[in-house]
Amino acid sequence: MSELVSVCVFCGSSPGARPIYGDAAERFGVLLAEAGIRLVYGGGNVGLMGRVADAVMTAGGEAVGVIPRFLMDREVGHTALTEIHVVESMHERKAMMAKLSDGFAILPGGIGTLEEMFEVWTWRQLGLHPKPCAVLNVGGYYDRMAGFLDDMVTEGFLQPGHRAALAIADTPEDLLAAMRLGPVPVRPNGLAKT
Question: Could you tell me which of 44, 40, 77, 43 has the C-alpha nearest to residue 61?
């Protein structure tokens, strides 16, 4: 596994119903800063996105935001980051975030967060990148999703090696450790070595 220089965080633009989500986002931001790992994220100043970015910056780290113009124009863009890239579309945003990152951390969030997670995990399965993908399951938020993914393996729609390429961790510390370990290796044809 190569060194993590930058980690892309996908998470909610809402704070969620329980304080543990924001607390975990802040803790992960502090861990990134302390490890000298640059945050790459969607550039927002609201919800968990704002909490993780603020924590990184307050702890002396670097935070790079990538935000579409239409969201920046709605004044949800964070204005106190190390760098902010304003792009024209959601597709351009995701491509730039992926290019700038050495791995993907998924914190609690809504359908946008899930869409981003499934896309980068699919790219990993197809052999388009070797970067680790890991989910923060704080407070059991992703328990039902993890169970469903395991059911996909049982039902023959997901190979065990591909399932293993998406790590699931219960704490911010375990999330960062899982990302440093990296996923199960994938062959060039996209099939996981099991």
Answer: 40
| Neighbouring C-beta atoms of residue 74, cutoff 10 Å | 11
Q: Which residues contact 50 (CB under 8 A, 6 or more apart)?
A: 44, 78
Q: Would you say residue 188 lies in a domain?
A: no
Distance CA 68, CA 175 (A): 28
Tokens describing residue 22: 């924001």
Q: Please state the domain count of the chain.
A: 1
Model confidence, pTM: 0.91
Mean pLDDT of 86-106: 96
Domain annotation covers residue 194: no
Please report, for the domain that includes residue 79, its CATH number.
3.40.50.450
Q: Which two tokens stand for residue 34?
A: 């302390």
- In which element (H, E) is residue 113 found? helix 111-125
Q: Would residue 110 count as lying in a domain? A: yes
Q: Which of 134, 121, 115, 142 is nearest to 172 (CA)?
A: 134
Half-sphere exposure of 29 (CA within 13 A, CB side): 27
User: Sheet harboring 83-87: ordered strands across?
Assistant: 83-87, 63-68, 38-41, 6-10, 104-106, 133-136, 166-169
Provide the percentage of residues in the chain whose pLDDT is more than 90.
88
Cβ–Cβ under 8 Å, residues 21 and 15: yes
